[in-house]
Amino acid sequence: MNRIQIQTEPFDVTAIQNELRMNNPSVGAVVTFLGLMRDMNEGDRVSTMYLEHYPGMTEKALQEILDEADRRWDLLGVRVVHRVGELMPTDAIVLVAVASTHRGEAFRACEFVIDFLKTRAPFWKKERTGDGDRWVNARHSDSDAEKRWE
Cα–Cα distances in Å, from 129 out to 16, 42, 85, 86, 93? Predict the structure, then answer.
C-alpha cells in the first residue's frame, strides 16, 4: 500500500481507514485528520482554490515526515492523501490516517504529521476571491504548532 498519494480526484476516507486496519487484530486505533476547503479566509469569501506542488520534492518531504513519525511512535500504518488542482468549498483537501495498537500514539502521530505537512511539504495555494486571485501565505500558527514537537 502506498503511504503517500498526491492526486486531483476525491478520495474515500472509509476505504483508506479500512486499508489501514487490513483485518489486523493488533490495530487498536485508527485516527484520521480530514482537512476541508473553507469558503472564507482572512475575512474574505473564497470561491475556489488552486493547489500546486512540486512533483518528487513533495513526496520526498512527506516521506521524511512519515519516517520521523515512525521513529517516534510504534505505528502499524500511516497514510497521507493530498489533493492538488482546483478545489471548491467543502472539498476534502488532505487526509492523514494513522493506525496503532493504542489510541494515544495514533493521536500524537496524526497531529505530528499534519503539523509538519503544513510547514514542510511544498504545496502552494492560490485563492479566488471577489477581489481577484491571491497566493496564500504561511501562517504563524502553523510554525508555532511545528515547534511544539522539538
Answer: 33, 11, 17, 14, 18
> Using CA atoms, how far apart are residues 125 and 138, in angstroms rounded to an integer?
10
Neighbours of 25 (CB within 10 A): 6
pTM of this structure: 0.92
DSSP 101: S
Bridging pattern class, strands 92-100 and 29-36: antiparallel
Per-residue pLDDT of the chain (150 residues; tens, 9 = 90+): 569 999 999 999 999 999 999 889 999 999 999 999 999 998 899 999 999 999 999 999 999 999 999 999 999 999 999 999 999 999 999 999 999 999 999 999 999 999 999 999 999 999 999 999 999 887 767 677 677 888
Q: What's the one-letter identity of residue 112?
A: F
